[in-house]
Amino acid sequence: MRAQLRRLPPLLAATMLLATGCAALDPQDDGPNTLVIHTQISGTAPGAEVFNAVVADFRRQHPEMHVKVVSNADDLPQVYETSRLAGKEADVVIVNLFDKTLEWTGVGATVPVGKYADAWGLRDRIEPEAVKQWTDGKGRLRGLPYIGTNWPVAYNMAVLRKAGVAEPPATTGELLDAAKKVKDKGGIAVTIGGSDWTGQKLLLQILQSYLPPEEGPKLFTEGDYCGSPAAMKGLKLFTELRDAGVFAENAQGLTSDTMTTQYNTGQAAAMSAMSSALGKVPEKTVKDTVVSGWPVPKDGVHDHPTMIRSFTAAGLWLSPNGAKKLPLVKKFVQYMYSEKVVDRFITEAGRDMAVRSGTVPKDFPLIAAARKAAEDKAVDKVMLPDVHIPGAATQPLINATAQAFAPGRTPQQICRAMSAAYERTN
């Protein structure tokens, strides 16, 4: 146990030890014909019903195997890490690449899967950019990319037209003009969950208005926001938008749930939302919605409105226990990457996949529109900084960006708070 703890970051290991006393939260059946899957695709998560159905089909196709599923939502990383310390972790883990999971491969909590992607004929099935995002600084493929997301801006044209705005704004100037007109009519220009991850993502997207793409990885890894002239120009732009009333009132206290409610009920003209949220927009609002990107300044580094495209929403990770059951793991993984299963996630759950597919989610028109926008030249793609932000800085950075939505916070104050979020990573 002590040897295992030394392989983990000290603070992380201590937290897990205090929480569990090294006890396994999931008593695993260690039989050689048992495959244990630990998944974040559960409960009300988009695709949960499809996942349950395809696992049931897999069980019917492989009666010689016992397949056990363990489900957790946002606390999956903590539960998995605890079970790993006890040597009782699941064989395959389905979870996003974010925060704690960024460190798993480096500390031996999971096994690199690059050679299996090749041996099992999966590499050509995966989007090349997805492979890039899942590969760490030492060239290790952390997990097999599976689900991604497009992150556009949804515009409610009924709200905009009521305010006298005929088209979604494409430039910062047009956004400021549209926001004033919408507010004058008593509406909300842009709703955003300023207190949580949705606010963080939008602020970092705006920051990239002036940030050359090649500078992004270093900035988001090291966190020297005050030392980057491009980042400071982006933060200045953010404060100008905030002070002009572009964002919903008291945005620093709003959540992603508040954001989607305000948009879905026609109170707001726009929201920046990942594609899974677009799948939950009610039909009445869908008819009024146009999908585009975030407006850009004319002196910025982008020619078109920007949109985040990421392939990190979920992947299939291999644990040390799973590495001892490769024949079972191979059957399940190849099944999950089959065209039939991938297409079910697209058509029945509206998920954007990190797997190559020409299937269109016809029952999810906004998700289809976001995908089309991401694949043409109507928008410029910007990075999702999550794969570069150290795990220990993730929540402190969200706290810092929440403060940024509060009136009166200057670019200098914001950059100092954002940089301070990285203190425990040094």
TrEMBL record:
Signal peptide: 1-24
Alphabetized Pfam families for the sequence: SBP_bac_1 (PF01547)
Keyword field: Signal
InterPro entries (alphabetical): Bact_solute-bd_prot1, SBP
Entry keyword Signal: yes
Domain of life: Bacteria
Entry keyword Transcription regulation: no
Protein name: ABC transporter substrate-binding protein
Native organism: Streptomyces pathocidini
